[in-house]
Every structure is written in structure tokens, then in C-alpha cells.
Amino acid sequence: MRLVLRGITKRFGSVVANDSISLTVEPGEIHCLLGENGAGKSTLMNVLYGLYKADEGEIELDGVVQHFAGPGDAMAAGIGMVHQHFMLIPVFSVAENVMLGNESTGFAGTLDVEAARTRVTEISDRFGFHVSPDAIVEDLPVGVQQRVEIIKALSRDAELLVFDEPTAVLTPQETDELMDIMRQLREAGKAIVFITHKLREVREVADRITVVRHGKVVGEADPKASNAELASMMVGRPVELVVHKDAPSIGADAFVVKDLRVVDPAGVTQVDDLSFTIRAGEVLAVAGVQGNGQTELTEAILGLQDDVTGSITLDGVELVGRSTRKILDAGVGFIPEDRQVDGLVPNFTIAENLMLNRSFRSPFVKNGALRIGALRAFADQKLKEYDVRARDIDSLAGNLSGGNQQKVVVARELSRDLRLLVAAQPTRGVDVGSIEFIHKQVVATRDSGIPVLVVSTELDEVVALADRIMVLYRGRIVGIVPADTPREVLGLMMTGERPDDLKDVVA
């Protein structure tokens, strides 16, 4: 199937998400749509899939202009989409998920599950997916669940497959397996659109690369181009992709966690018997697939979890049982994983957001009155120091780009007198230029002698920032290893393999 998009424009109010985008995808081709988060890639594919209606432009499949009223029309035309967040029913079997929305019936109108089982087996055998039609989806590893999504699309005779940030929740090994699957699909003549911002993956599988920036196509790139060249096209300027840092100057044990256990409101243990130490001037980075206790760990440190047992001490002071305000006052800086929910108040100005956790004390408050001059001077300084791209300090935080919102959070947290920095997904959803800046700030914090805990699902980020790496799996520590541990070992540890069992891999 040959896809041609001509002049696709999509507006949301005054925001132009797609600005006259045109591209062509040929059969038997992996066409990568590369761009920063917020560049308009997913919006474009949602137009293609019938989830949005374009304001201008047209979609052509094999020479025929299409008018999709919804995803059902797109699927009927041979388009399949593998979403970043899987569209599966966890308690259903693979076969039941595959037939959902495309049910066939047998005698007396009963559902023909056997036909779905046969279809799953045929597709799985053809592409070597190794997926049982009777397996319950919630019992499957994330990588296998993604294969179910692909089988679901192929069962409807999709000739054009869209992969939207498909590796966001995968281990390195699962990512490699997905790359192999995409190559097999290409060899079978399928047309593939691969949406990503990860340069390593682009260079590995792309036949052609279209780069999108601020909703516009800025050009095509050669798959053999260097990471620096691709990053420069994405951002519009040269970007330093390597984190430069000296050997750490390690001090005494500063942050100590012992026998930590966190139970969620449903009674499920999310963090189970964690014990670790971070020394002054050290970055301990936590690796693992999202959903293995990382969020609950950081929230327990900040006093945001109710059912916590064990001990968390900072410079000998116990934090468990303290309120979040007292923990922040003890010198804990917190960059939350969701800046819009936990990091900012979107309807507050930049200046107001910069004083959020100090709105009741000096230098912003004196004798119960807000010192407007002190706040404005501080905010003006941080706007320049952290290169926050905004009209002025009175701009609403909610109107900033994701990268600039994150810079406001980082500026606020690092401008306090810190004794510990907890950075959860510090560069999630930000462009490579902002990633470069934030990484430098984290390293500078570590070099000032402050212990740093970084939590990230991006293995490249973990390796770049860490002095030691702690791998979590199902709420438990699989191992704590040096930062130079091979990626393939870290990937296997993220599936629960113990480092002592991986000596052959290291060798």
C-alpha cells in the first residue's frame, strides 16, 4: 500500500499542530517520522487513523483519496495503528482481544472464538511471534503484549502499520525484538510509519527519515546520518549529546533507605524490602520498565504515600512519618515524573510557580506579606539562568512548551539549599536541547557534593548520568551495579535476572 499525505494541516484553536505536512510512504518501506515531543508527529498519525479530521489537505491510499469518518474507516482501508499505550483488555485472552471490534459469529449468533484462535496462530507462526491465542493478556510481558497489538492489526489485513513511540515501555532486548519484527513486516511488503524521538532506533531500521519541527516538515535525513546531525535537524541548532562529567568526589553515606515497603490503597505491595545508600556527591540512577515500583519509591521519599514501613534517613534524620512540607524543608529537592500534575500549577505565572514550595518564608515573605520585588527579581534571574523561553515572568506556566515547563521545575528545585535531589523522569517529554541542559544541571548538583537519585525509563539517560545503577523489577532490587555495566546485562536485569546469573553475558 502506498500512502501519500498532501498538505495536512490540523489546528487546535490558535495552535497549529500540523502545518501543511506532506510525505509519501512506499510499500515495503520503514519510514521514520522523527521529531521532538510536541512536534506534531502523533497528531499527524491520528489524522491518518481517523481520530482527528484535518482542517486542510488530503490522504491518498494507492491513488485513491480517502475521507475517514473515524478509525473504523481507516482500518477498513488497511491501516493499522500500534499505540504507545496498548489498547487491550487485560482480563481477555489474546484471541478475544484480537477479535474485539471485529467479531465473527457462528451457529445461532454465538461468537466464533475458534476462528480468532486460528487467525492468531497463523499470524504468530508466519512472523515468529510465539504468542499463544489462549494466554491472558495481563499475564504477558509488555513486549509480548505489543506483539498482540501487531497481531490485532494484521488480523484485519492491514497493509500500512503505524508504530507510535512503540519502545517507550520496552526493555532493550524487547526493543531489539521489535526492530526485528518491523524488518519482517517490511520484507512482507507492509508499509510502516515509525514515530519516535530516539535516534538510536531511527538509525537502526529506517529506510527514509522525515524530520518534523514545530508542526512542519523541515526536511528528509539520510538513515546513515550521525546522531548529532539528526539532533540538529530536530532542534534547529547543534546539540551536545554526550554527558560530560568528571569522576565523582564521593563523600560519606548521606541518604540511607532500609527495609522500605510501600503498599497501595488496594493492598498491593508496590515496593518490597528496598535497602540502599547514596553517598554525598554521587548519582544513583534507578533503571527499570515503568510500573515496577519507581513511582511509589519516589513518592514514599517525599511523604506522598500513606502505607510506608521501614526507614528513610537523610544525614541521619528520619523522613518516614514526616509531612511532605517538612521533608522539603529538610532539603529534599523533587523533580516529579509528571510536571503538569505534581510539578506546576498551570494557571499560575512562572514567577508564582518558582516560589511554590517557599511561598511562606524568606526571601519572598516578610511579616506575613509577599515581597513582590524580591519575587520578581528572583524570577527574572532564573528565567535567564535556566534559559526559560517565555515572554516574561508573568506568562502562565500552562502556556509554555513541555521543555520550558520542565526548566521552571528544575530552576525552582535547584535554587533551594539542597541536601538531596530526587529527579523522577527528569527529561520526559522534552526536546533534545532541553535534555542537554537538564543533564548538565543534574551533574552540577552532584559535583557540588549533593546525593542525587535519578529515576528514568530511558536507559541511555540512566547510563549517562549514573555513578551506580540500581535495577528494580516488581518492586524489588534486582541488583546495584557500576555505571559501565553492559546495556545487554542491564536489559536482562530489567526482566528480573540477577547480575550473578549473567556472568556469561558479561564475558
From TrEMBL:
One of its GO terms (cellular component) is plasma membrane. It is a peripheral membrane protein. InterPro entries: AAA+_ATPase, ABC_carbohydrate_import_ATPase, ABC_transporter-like_ATP-bd, ABC_transporter-like_CS, P-loop_NTPase. It comes from the Bacteria. PROSITE patterns: ABC_TRANSPORTER_1, ABC_TRANSPORTER_2. It holds the Pfam family ABC_tran. Residues 3-239, 255-499 form the ABC transporter domain. One of its GO terms (molecular function) is ATP binding. Keywords: ATP-binding, Cell membrane, Membrane, Nucleotide-binding, Repeat, Translocase, Transport. Its main location: membrane. It is found in: Cell membrane. PANTHER family: CARBOHYDRATE TRANSPORT ATP-BINDING PROTEIN MG119-RELATED, GUANOSINE IMPORT ATP-BINDING PROTEIN NUPO. This is Nucleoside ABC transporter ATP-binding protein. It comes from Nocardioides exalbidus.
